């Protein structure tokens, strides 16, 4: 079994979607459903961490009077204080 932290974002999302479909189908035993739910939570946290890491790496180039300036990526709503 492949360790979750070795999965790419896309692989983790595919596994998460499969788990969600199985749980929505509702024909799994309770014990299996709990295991699937726990695995889904781990995958969800992994995806969230990977997205956060990528977000930190993104930089926007902003043209100012002094030339081109590097600016860390920020959610547009955060810049407006919303």
TrEMBL record:
<keyword id="KW-0269">Exonuclease</keyword>
<comment type="similarity">
    <text>Belongs to the XseB family.</text>
</comment>
<dbReference type="InterPro" id="IPR003761">
    <property type="entry name" value="Exonuc_VII_S"/>
</dbReference>
<dbReference type="InterPro" id="IPR037004">
    <property type="entry name" value="Exonuc_VII_ssu_sf"/>
</dbReference>
<keyword id="KW-0963">Cytoplasm</keyword>
<keyword id="KW-0378">Hydrolase</keyword>
<dbReference type="GO" id="GO:0008855">
    <property type="term" value="F:exodeoxyribonuclease VII activity"/>
</dbReference>
<comment type="function">
    <text>Bidirectionally degrades single-stranded DNA into large acid-insoluble oligonucleotides, which are then degraded further into small acid-soluble oligonucleotides.</text>
</comment>
<dbReference type="GO" id="GO:0005829">
    <property type="term" value="C:cytosol"/>
</dbReference>
<protein>
    <recommendedName>
        <fullName>Exodeoxyribonuclease 7 small subunit</fullName>
        <ecNumber>3.1.11.6</ecNumber>
    </recommendedName>
</protein>
<dbReference type="Pfam" id="PF02609">
    <property type="entry name" value="Exonuc_VII_S"/>
</dbReference>
<dbReference type="GO" id="GO:0006308">
    <property type="term" value="P:DNA catabolic process"/>
</dbReference>
<keyword id="KW-0540">Nuclease</keyword>
<comment type="subunit">
    <text>Heterooligomer composed of large and small subunits.</text>
</comment>
<dbReference type="GO" id="GO:0009318">
    <property type="term" value="C:exodeoxyribonuclease VII complex"/>
</dbReference>
